[in-house]
Amino acid sequence: MITIPTSGRTRFCDGVSRRNFLRMGTLGLGGISMADLLRAESNASGGGSNEGSVVMVYLPGGPTQHETFDPKPDAGPEIRGSFGTIPTAIPGTHFCELLPKLAKSHERFSVIRTLTGMVNRHESFHCYTGRPGGRAEDNEPAGGWPGFGSVVSQLLGPRDGMTPYVDAAPKMSYAPYNNRGHHIGSTKISWPGFTGPQHTPFAIQGKGRADLKLDKIDLSRLHDRRHLLESFEQIGDAVEDAAMDAYQKQAFEILTSGKMAQAMDLSREPQSVRDRYGLGQPTDKAFGGAPQDPQQFLLARRLVEAGVRCVTVAFGAWDWHANREGTIAKLSNKYLPVYDHALSVFLEDLDERGLLETTTVVVWGEFGRTPKINPKGGRDHWDKTQSVLVAGGGIQGGRVIGETDSVGGEPVDRAVHVQEVFATMYQNVGIDAKATMVTDLSGRPHFLVDGSYGPIAELL
């Protein structure tokens, strides 16, 4: 670990007076030992290439499948809704008419219409971990399930001088939507799970951006920002006199080079590129979700381009019961065109830069919406299926996996379990989910995905 002695002396909770210090490996990572991760990357073997990245786009509230990728034009109006369909670039496939740009670029991505295995809970935890958590019936292991990005951070470590896991999402007022492991009706926070605090993502929003300096580190601000002294027991008595080895020196260079700050600086992009993504719009505060900010996608592209392995983004507010802001017809007209534009530009930009070949994109929410429109004009929670957009990292575009029944309520052909999506993401970053295990806080090993689930063969 890297220590930077300062001028004063401080007495810690164990009563021993020691030099004040900074554990540089914690910058932006909530306690990460960067040197340890560099060693892990250097010593990694097997499992294939580790050059892939993943961008997970979380849609807080659960998006509607009928008004997006699984329209039912032959159903009655209470199922069909207010909109028609539009043919995509793939013959025989139709999306909702409000997604013309995505329809035109369907060859860049595929759609899973039959995702199963999710639970009816308004929290992002299941999307980030692949499993439910926070309740006794979830039978979580000691320490709790880690998110995909935390596992990747532990197994692969930093790359190209960049932290492995970044949360680019804005802070949302409804806590369970945030990438923080908050659970509904519980004070428990399952974050980052049994991988430990060293594998929390670098959170860009809030103080993180302001505290990251180009080629400089303000020691007093970092001390306050990270509450580093709270983790002193994890460091041990030897930290004060430990010598820097090659990995510690490399870690120091990562944290002082300014590369992370440069990747986060959108002003380095030409104005034409920023304009191409657009500015988006806020969502109604009553939803507690995220704004529709296309610049998050531009930021995600810059981060994976710089070497970040996993980036999470939150886009919009999708809990469309018609108890906030209006009916699903009104909400669809307002928010889907921005979603259509931002996501199609993001995929196009990745493709043009050659990044789509190595960057897996997964776009989903915690569940879908009911087939039948409720009396208020909205759709309610529905965990039996949802539509998911997947692209890149070796995933073939232009495909539709699975088929739902005539009302879009349940799979009738090729149900795809959420664990299969995770197995696909792991494979695309070079990790064999069936052969790799991680250990919880009780010392018990766990496979990365459950049972016999593997990558989605139809997409690869």
Overall 3D geometry? globular
What is the number of helices? 14
Contiguous uncertain segments of 5+ residues: 1-33, 43-49, 213-244
Strand order of the largest sheet: 9-8-10-3-11-14-6-15
Helical fraction equals 25-40%
Our measurement of the CA-to-CA distance between the termini, rounded to an integer number of angstroms, reads 40 Å
Q: Provide the residue-averaged pLDDT.
A: 84
- Beta-strand content bin: 5-15%
Compute the CA-based radius of gyration: 22 Å
Q: How would you characterize the largest beta sheet?
A: 8 strands, mixed
Q: Given this structure, which CATH class is correct?
A: Alpha Beta
Q: Work out the number of β strands.
A: 20
Find the structural class using helix and strand composition.
Answer: alpha/beta
CATH superfamily: Alkaline Phosphatase, subunit A
CATH architecture: 3-Layer(aba) Sandwich
Number of domains: 1
Q: What would the CATH topology be?
A: Alkaline Phosphatase, subunit A
Features of the shown structure:
460 residues, alpha/beta, Alkaline Phosphatase, subunit A, two-stranded antiparallel ribbon, 14 helices, globular
